[in-house]
Design goal:
The protein is built from 6 helices and 12 strands. By secondary structure, the chain is α/β, with parallel strands linked by helices. It has a 7-stranded parallel sheet with strand order 8-7-6-11-9-12-10, sandwiched between helices. A 5-stranded mixed sheet has the order 1-3-4-5-2, covered by helices on one side. A hairpin with a 4-residue loop joins β3 and β4.
């Protein structure tokens, strides 16, 4: 089997004969990086569906590759975590979406906060297609197919007061902040809602409002971590091995 983590394809590319035609950048990758030949088999996955194996029947990068596909495995179980993330700067957003998707988080809310610059909301990386593509990049790396739901919230206080209580129902709500009195829980045995702030952290008003809603403020050590580093550390601590 050729060394490819997972080649993802969508339902409209999959026909009734169990075959799929791969075109574009994925086909170029198959030719230039994998150097596929007829008869070679690679790992494939149906977006939001099962995983299996695809064997190359014919094709090339210019015209596309036709694969015979057998899907017989389930994707990994999602982590029982909802992530509310203050919108990162554009250059960080791309890799953060890939990271979160790869870590098995299936619901992400990108939230405005006092230290999020207004210009961040105009980045093309927030376009639906761009978000989808970055999530696919993360999924293919870890052999997962379940695309995260990513939502945008432009107003902090209305979100916290009007939406957060319902999202907290049945979940332990944690606010990640260096000023947190308690360390982040380890091996949490229940679903969680994790709030991670922007570079520079949450402002006092935001901390107070969130704590007043019943959110626990926790830290992940003495070091001040970049946003994506903090997410990786916190999720790995909450649900190691998931």
């Amino acid at each position: 089997m050729i060394d490819l983590n997972l080649l993802l394809f969508s339902g409209h590319e999959y026909d009734a004969q169990g075959e799929v035609v791969i075109k574009g950048e994925r086909a170029r990758h198959m030719e230039r990086v994998l150097a596929v030949q007829s008869g070679d088999c690679i790992r494939v996955g149906l977006i939001n569906g099962p995983i299996g194996e695809g064997c190359v029947l014919a094709g090339n990068a210019a015209e596309g590759y036709r694969l015979s596909v057998v899907l017989n495995q389930s994707p990994p179980e999602p982590r029982p975590l909802m992530l509310v993330l203050a919108l990162p700067r554009p250059k960080v957003l791309k890799r953060t979406l890939q990271l979160v998707a790869g870590l098995g988080v299936k619901h992400v809310i990108l939230l405005n906060s006092a230290r999020v610059e207004k210009s961040f909301w105009s980045t093309p990386w927030l376009a639906a297609e761009s978000i989808h593509q970055q999530c696919l990049e993360g999924l293919s790396q870890v052999r997962d197919t379940l695309v995260p739901r990513v939502e945008l919230r432009h107003l902090f206080r209305p979100f916290v007061e009007d939406e957060l209580p319902a999202l907290m129902s049945g979940r332990r709500a944690l606010l990640a902040d260096p000023l947190g009195a308690s360390p982040c829980p380890y091996r949490l045995q229940q679903p969680a809602l994790l709030l991670v702030g922007p570079e520079g952290g949450w402002v006092p008003f935001e901390r107070a409002l969130l704590e007043g809603m019943g959110v626990e403020m926790v830290h992940c050590g003495e070091r001040i971590l970049k946003v994506d580093w903090a997410i990786s550390t916190l999720i790995g601590q909450l649900y190691p091995g998931c």
